[in-house]
Amino acid sequence: MLNKIVALTKEFVSIKSNSENATELDKILEIALSNLKGYTIERFENKGVKSALVYNRRLQEQSDYNAKKRPSKFRIILNGHLDVVPGKDYQYLPKVKGDKLYGVGSMDMKASVACLIMVFKEVASKVDYPLALQLVTDEEPGGFNGTKYQVEKGVKADFVIAGESTGLQIANRAKGVLLLKIFTNGRTAHGAYPWKGDNAIWKMNQFLNSLLNRYPIPSKQEWVTTVNLSRIETSNKVFNKIPDDCEIKLDIRYVPKDADTIVNSIKTLLPKGFKLDIVAKETALFVSENNQYLKILQSVGEQVTRKKVGLYGAQGTSDARHFTRVGIDGIEFGPKGWNIGSDEECVSIKSLEQYYQILKNFLLLMKGGDENE
Question: Which GO terms describe its molecular function (predicted)?
Fold first, then answer.
């Protein structure tokens, strides 16, 4: 099985399924689905973004089982994304060095998807409860037209596993995302006479100093709210003119306890005349450590790896949040990997075998119950 997982991962890595490359995104989705023939495949498309939901019912067993008869709720949904953060051309040529498989998206999360496909095929006909594999192509830009859209169309579950790379640990918490644009005006004048103008960039700089004072950049990984200044813009293009406008873009990752206060916290720092636009506010992820599915997954993981499987808070986010926003518990769980989004992104091949075995054992333990729930 491991050879099949590695081969499929290599095939996935060779495809430039960057967020802006619709042709390649469609191609990789079709390759993934070609490995799942015989199962019910429900296709979705929103704003040109395609995704799919694969059910554990074989078409030949129930030919009239279609999208209209989708289970009202799956017990487990395995969630995986096929889009990647762009890399250099050579990174789309997968290579293996020792235990590591290198390539764009190998860690995030094409190797995980290969495992999800193989484990679904292995257990789908052996379990007596509704099981689904969710494959999307827009997680990197936010998952709004893939996972979120499917949730809006009624896709539900008792428990969701997003196959993000977690080093075979379980992320039961993840920071929320707040994207902001902040704008201010000034007054233009010739650059030689700065006292005659009101420089919008200097005004913005004063706000940024206050923002940095309230949310200092951590010196190491911490479970705190962080602010990234991702862009500063002005319409001014010349040296000898005082800019009369300035806009910034902020990427804020907030811990769950700040969910209800983060926007007002930023607003209290804004000087008079500044404008704030909320581009997106995405839910922080939190699942109780006492969740029954989480505890079983944790136990199975420890049996397979013979090591402790801990719980932790993820700095980044995943499509699991689209389920938690509507009250469906979801966690992140995946193999070991390194250097996410960098030139040396890679995944541990040994951990792929362990990941596959953990998921297989976990899903088989879930047998029993009403399959029409």
Answer: acetylornithine deacetylase activity; metal ion binding
Structure token pair of residue 145: 């037209």
Whether 53 maps to a domain, the answer reads: yes
322 sits in which H/E element: helix 321-324
Q: Give the domain-ending residue among 282, 304, 327.
A: 282
What tokens appear for 132 in the block? 């689904």
Q: What angle do CA 93, 99, 103 make, to 5 degrees?
A: 20
Q: Tell me: do 169 and 193 sit in the same domain.
A: no
- Burial degree of 47 (CB within 10 A; 0-12, 13-18, 19+): exposed
Q: Are residues 19 and 149 in the same domain?
A: yes
Domain CATH for 356: 3.40.630.10
In this structure, what token pair is assigned to residue 43? 């296709």
Q: Is residue 372 part of a domain?
A: no
Residue 263 and residue 243 share a domain: yes
Domain end (from 254, 282, 310): 282
Whether residues 233 and 117 share a domain: the answer is no
Q: How far apart are CA 186 and CA 243, in angstroms?
A: 7
The phi, psi pair for 5, rounded to 5°, reads -65, -45
CATH number at residue 265: 3.30.70.360
Range of the domain at 264: 177-282
Residues 6+ apart with CB under 8 A from 10: 94, 101, 103
Where helices occur in 18-138 by DSSP H, the ranges are 22-34, 111-123
Taking all residues of the chain, what is their mean pLDDT, rounded to a whole number? 94
The predicted structure's pLDDT at residue 368: 54
The residue with tokens 């050879």 is 3
Full-model pTM = 0.88
- CA–CA dist 324, 273 (Å, integer): 36
Alpha carbons 329 and 354: distance in angstroms, whole number: 24
- pLDDT tier at 163 (50, 70, 90 boundaries)? very high
**Pairing status of strand 74-81 against strand 157-162:** parallel
Nearest in space to 286 (alpha carbons), one of 255, 252, 253: 255
- Residues 142 and 264: their CA atoms lie apart, in Å, by 23
Q: How would DSSP label each residue in 147-211?
A: HHHHHHTT--EEEEEE----TTSEEEEE-EEEEEEEEEE-B--BTT-GGGSB-HHHHHHHHHHHH
Q: How many domains does the chain have?
A: 2
